[in-house]
Structures are given as structure tokens and as C-alpha cells.
Amino acid sequence: MKAVVLLLLLGLLTGATAAHVTEEDNEFAEFEEFDEEEVPPTPQRSDAPQPAAADDEEEAQVEEEEEFDHFQDEEEFEGLDQERQPSRPQGDKPHLTIAKVPLHLRSNWESFYLELLMLAGLAVYFGNFLAGRSKNHRLATAWFQSHRQLLLDNFALVGDDGRKELSPDEVEAGGLVKDSESVYTLWCSGRLCVEGMLVELRLLKRQDLLSLMAHMVRPSADQLVIRVTMSPQFMDGFVMCLATKKTAARLHKTMADLSTYCPEKKRPDKYGLPGNFTVLSEMGEVANAMLDQKVLSVIKRYEESIDYIHMSDQYSGPRLQEDTQPTKLPEVKKVLLFGFNGQ
């Protein structure tokens, strides 16, 4: 019996010692957490009927239906089930239907009448441009050829002022410079008492169709303007102008020397001139001296061709605007200006 008790005590002591040694070997055992998933208990569903809650839900549903009864329209969704198309399977490709668009273009020329009209207008415009430019060139060349010998007899140099290089066409034309399609100029120099003479042919703008149409409404003529710059010591000091009535009114308004030194217009019959002319003179003695019988006979012979004759020792060009304040006095020259109308 004692032996059995001793064996039991020995077994207990051995187990306690082993547990103590295990706790000492694992120093971090107290920090280890063993999380065990706790499964929450599943609540038991009661199969017993709840009549009170069901009654409340039915009452709320009835109240909601009565509240929105006026929004419901029985005919609103009528036939919706019949119009709804059956849904296609998910894997099928969409079926595209391409509408047939009718072609409105016709095979005849009536569909392009606007384009044809525009092309015809352009053809007329460019055709008139070429024809008008060619005609102006022929007129300028014909005038120069008919007066070339007269100019060569009176001037040592005809057709070149030495300031610009002439083109081959201008050299062939004898120095007649083409400033534009309707303006040609010619410079002459080398004569006693004359510094130089500039001849300007102001032809109609025949190359411009709009200008040509305006010319039909308001007729005008080609014009020849000759400006002779005199040497200062070989011309007396006076201002005088002989011009047609319409041109005289325009020159008296625009030219500075005429508006300053010739305030009055004199009657043409006083000097034996035709009735369509007007005389602007600074002094009456100058007009009597210049308009002698020889000059009057030439004026009467070429009455339709003469537009104006302007002689001045105070010529400075067009007058300045009234609101313009000049910084210095304009430079004046002694010039003779002649304007002739073409036939």
C-alpha cells in the first residue's frame, strides 16, 4: 500500500515539474494569442404567425395605393406588352438596316446652271480684261508713234528720264512707260528754257468691267495731260487758267494757286472765246496779252479737244485741307499745264 502511494506521489511531482519546465522554456507564451473563430449562434426563426405586423403592413400599403391613385392612368400603358419586341439572344450581333438614299443629281446640265452662270461671268470678266488692256496699249503706242517725230524735233531726249531701267517692251515702244493698265507716261527733256516735260496718257479703264459699265452710264473720254516745267529765269510771274466751265470750277476749288490768286471768274465773250470756257486770271492784262488772235484761232479750231490750259509761277499742286497745319511753306514752281480730251 505504501508503495502504491509513493508511486502516485512520484507521478504527480514528475508532471508538475514538466509543466513548470515548459513554462520557463517558452518565455513569450503569455504574448501569444490564440484567436478562435467564434461562430455566432444562428437565431432560430419562429414559424409562428405574427398577425399584428402583417396587419400594419397591409394598412400602410392600402394607404399608399389610395394616395397615388390619381397618378395612375389605365390607358397609359395600354398595348405596351404587344409593342414590346422579344429580346434577342445575348450572343447575336446587332442587325443594321441601311436606308436607301435617292440620288438627287440629274445627268443633264440643268442641275449646274448656277455654276455655269458663274463660269460665264468669269469668262466675260477676264475676256474684257485682256481686250481692254490690249486696246489701251494699242492706243498709247499709236499716239506715241504719231507724235514721236514732233517730240524728237523739239527735245533732245524723248522717253527716258534716267531714273529707272526700262523694260524690253518700253524700249521697243520708244520709252513710253506703262504705270498701270490705263496710265502711260513719257518724259522729254533737252530744250532751251524748259527743264522738262512730262506727258501722261490717262486712258479709260477698259480692262475693268465695272468701270466700263459706269462709263456707259456716265460717258467720259481719254485724257492727255502735259506738264511743262519752265526754267525760273525764263518765265514771268503770273497765274492764269483757261478751262471749260465744269473743269474751271473743279480746278478753282482744288488748286492752291488758283484759289489764292484768282478769286474771280471772268466772262469768255470779253476775250472772244467760245461760250463753254471760263477765264481765271490774276490780272486782266495777262489774259489780254496771252489770248491773241493766233491763240484764239487755235482754241476755236480744237474747241472740243481742249479741257484746260493752266499757267502759273506759284504752282504747288492741290490745296491742303483746312484742318491740316503745314510745317513749312510748299515749294512752288513755274509750270504750264495742258489738258486735252480724246476723241
UniProtKB/TrEMBL annotation:
Its main location: endoplasmic reticulum. The keyword tRNA-binding does not apply. Keywords: Membrane, Signal, Transmembrane, Transmembrane helix. GO terms for molecular function: calcium ion binding. Residues 81-95 have a biased composition (Basic and acidic residues). The keyword Cell membrane does not apply. Residues 28-39, 54-80 have a biased composition (Acidic residues). Pfam families: CCDC47. One of its GO terms (cellular component) is rough endoplasmic reticulum membrane. It is a single-pass type I membrane protein. It is found in: Rough endoplasmic reticulum membrane. InterPro entries: CCDC47. Residues 28-95 are annotated as: Disordered. Residues 1-18 form the signal peptide. GO terms for biological process: endoplasmic reticulum calcium ion homeostasis. Belongs to the CCDC47 family. This is PAT complex subunit CCDC47. It comes from Rhipicephalus microplus.
